[in-house]
Amino acid sequence: MCQLLGMNCNVPTDICFSFAGFRARGGLTDHHRDGWGIAFFEGRGVRVFLDPAPSAHSPVAELVNRYPIRSLNVIAHIRKATQGEIRLENTHPFQRELWGRYWIFAHNGNLKDFAPPLSGRFLPVGSTDSELAFCHILDTLAARFPAGKPAPAELHAALRELAREIGSRGEFNFLLSDGDWLFAHCSSRLCYIVRRAPFAEAHLADEDLTVDFRRLTGPQDRVAVIATTPLTDNEHWTQIAPGNLVAFRDGDTIALGETATVAQDYPRRGIDKAPSA
């Protein structure tokens, strides 16, 4: 399956530590070699880097790894192609505008016989089931809330309904953000960690790299990192229960509507955080 990575925090934070381990899964510590991408929100703008080459060997990934872009919301993806050729237009994350905001989306899974009708406002450029699902989500939201972005609880309920509908066609793990909120839906496998004081050291599972967050953070800093599987091997990650849509804001989970319960904690295997996460 593809690999997802998200970060949501209450102060602008770079994702260099997490990304160092994450990019290794694209052809070095795992077999996901069909492209990668990452998007950083900066105010109302978004920086998006995409490359159809394996992330472990990508010069663009090396640039991102050495470029400490600080953001409140980040979404990254490493692709293992199931639908659509290995091309730039099929590389996640995908970007569209709705209600005067950019939306970023990345998907992990395989949707079978998925062919929803689209109004024409949002159309896929590539040939992936993922981009088609993203267009369907935005198409539905635009039609349901024509006056503009709804209240967070209404938005969460609509997204949860769409996630269940689309998820009936196959695995539908995804990350979605408009720069204010980051939504994480688990169909089969997705976990997260929230780093807050008191901070500690973290060691990557895919690279021999350790960071002491006590030296990099302030007492009020808070960062949530979401990943397909834990990125570190010395921290407790929490697995999201399949079927749940978890909302993140200001570096923590926020209960909206139906309680976003979670399953058991992972044993000590993975973490990620800080003004250098």
Automatic annotation (TrEMBL):
<protein>
    <submittedName>
        <fullName>Glutamine amidotransferase class-II</fullName>
    </submittedName>
</protein>
<feature type="domain" description="Glutamine amidotransferase type-2">
    <location>
        <begin position="2"/>
        <end position="251"/>
    </location>
</feature>
<dbReference type="Pfam" id="PF13230">
    <property type="entry name" value="GATase_4"/>
</dbReference>
<keyword id="KW-0315">Glutamine amidotransferase</keyword>
<dbReference type="GO" id="GO:0016740">
    <property type="term" value="F:transferase activity"/>
</dbReference>
<dbReference type="InterPro" id="IPR029055">
    <property type="entry name" value="Ntn_hydrolases_N"/>
</dbReference>
<keyword id="KW-0808">Transferase</keyword>
<dbReference type="InterPro" id="IPR026869">
    <property type="entry name" value="EgtC-like"/>
</dbReference>
<dbReference type="InterPro" id="IPR017932">
    <property type="entry name" value="GATase_2_dom"/>
</dbReference>
